Amino acid sequence: FFRTEIPEGLRRLPGPKPLPIIGNVLEMGSRPYLSLTAMSKRYGHIFQIQIGMRPVVVLSGSETVRQALVKQGEEFAGRPDLYTFRFINDGKSLAFSTDQAGVWRTRRKLAYSALRSFSSLDGTTPEYSCMLEEHICKEGEELIKQLNTVMKADGSFDPFRHIVVSVANVICGMCFGRRYGHNDQELLSLVNLSDEFGQVAGSGNPADFIPFLQILPSPTMKKFLSINARFNEFVQRIVGEHYATYDKDNIRDITDSLIDHCEDRKLDENSNVHVSDEKIVGIVNDLFGAGFDTISTGLSWSVMYLVAYPEIQERLYQEMKDKVGLDRTPLLSDKPNLPLLEAFIFELFRHSSFLPFTIPHCTTKDTSLNGYFIPKDTCVFINQWQINHDPELWKEPSSFNPDRFLVADGTEVNKVEGEKVMIFGMGKRRCIGEVIARNEVYLFLAIIVQKLHFHTMPGEPLDMTPEYGLTMKHKRCHLRATMRIKEVTLL
Ligand code: HEM
What we know:
By secondary structure, the protein is of the alpha+beta class. Helix content is 49%, strand content 9%. It is globular, with a radius of gyration of 23 Å. Heme binds at residue 431.
């Protein structure tokens, strides 16, 4: 790469000098979103580092990232062949695998339309506008009951432990047509161990780039492999049950609809069959995985911010009391009347940037960006954290201030300002669960804010330091919650 001839008129990428064998691993350190942001100040919005022997291009700055992912979308839409990605969904993941462009596009379209149709299905009663709303409201109410019970029994609760089950149940409902109890050991052992998944799959894991590290024993890697194996086993078993009970005239959930797609294709003799049944039905594995870890991490952070900023927690409660009242569960249609809540969510995404990098990208052909030459098959990191903390875009980026998104005396959200926050990626690989995720974070949070008041444990200071990974988590901790309204209304 470094010796590659640079085509005339283009420049060689700037970047720090790499050490032999390890490259720039030491400069990247344990928080690459901070070190690579610092490097962007020195080398600009496009520069190159070397991890092990492999060059990686790092993009920051919203204009540069937009240029690459949107305007030159095709050229930057690939995924690199990374060691750890081969173990996710048996190497057949829609999000992480090196599927050829045509295969990936077909799978992405299928996944998108399955998600859209099963979230917008009518609810079982007219009070809900759609199935997604019904699932979230029911799981939200159940979560409040669960936290109330745990508070009574233990005097404190671990936010992630309970939120993750509620969120997993929403995606389980859509993908598999079932839900699990808050103490279901099988689900708990899967969803509560997702930390190692994120740690290994995060951008810049040296084991992805330095082959000798792949053969050294690593406890985190061992857990990562075991989580992937157990995850696949869990989904495979449910998929098997769906095949056994599949009925063309009664498509129950996303798994059925993917099986149905495979069956239809077999009848259609003219169809160009390029994608295997396994890769089609396997989409459900990606949807389930992406659908619980991201949202529960975001919601768990939101509880941490409520506790860290009690005056904002109080304002959110007042807004809820004034605009929705306390007699009914909030709904999706209440969103336009809750500008502070929407602003809080924008600021949560921006300030925490809990997905600091997108999933790594890869160039699909020789290309250039801002006059710099980038060869085909180059791994590209997109630093979302940098965009969300760029002083060129944000006033006092390190302070947590939802009011930055409010206008007209706090009665309206500035959507244009909200769109500057980058957490779902951009362009061809942009997250396909974005609408569901935004609705889910909003509605769970609305239900939580209406019914609970959160506090720290006396003598236990709040630790807001993120632990680096694909999704950054806060350290597991214990908090307290008191009911805002009488239990009678709940039970
Ligand atoms: C990809 C963020 C929720 C499904 C992504 C990417 C990001 C992201 C940053 C990578 C974009 C890129 O590589 O450029 C988030 C956040 C979420 C969330 C912050 C919640 C707050 C969801 C949900 C689903 C989902 C609920 C599905 C139910 C996917 C899939 C991809 C993806 C399938 C891979 C797309 C591809 O490679 O073409 N998401 N996501 N995500 N997300 Fe999400």
